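ARCHIVE CARD
CATEGORY: sequence design from structure
SOURCE FIELD: tokenized fold
FIELD CONTENT:
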């Protein structure tokens, strides 16, 4: 089975970028801190993590960087897949 590296990269970009859009929305709405607190409690971890106030510039930066990383990972994994499964 051959995969399209560009499309795989786009899927990775949309996935990782989307996760960070969701995270940024949680921070903007003030829901991120309770979520982190719950996660720490559920994993039986005690560490003082404080979510800072929403910053538009930081949110855009993390979304762009995550999307670029997602694209690169998806592209690389697809390329490796294609090389390993050559017919």
């Amino acid at each position: 089975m051959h995969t399209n590296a560009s499309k795989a990269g786009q899927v990775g970009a949309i996935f990782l970028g989307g996760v960070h859009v969701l995270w940024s929305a949680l921070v903007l709405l003030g829901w991120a801190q309770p979520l982190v607190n719950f996660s720490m409690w559920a994993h039986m971890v005690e560490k003082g993590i404080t979510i800072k106030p929403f910053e538009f510039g930081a949110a855009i930066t993390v979304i762009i960087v995550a999307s670029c990383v997602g694209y690169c990972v998806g592209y690389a994994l697809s390329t490796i897949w294609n090389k390993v499964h050559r017919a």
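CARD ANNOTATION: The chain has a mean pLDDT of 96. Residues 17 and 66 are 5 Å apart (CA to CA).
SHELF: design records, drawer C
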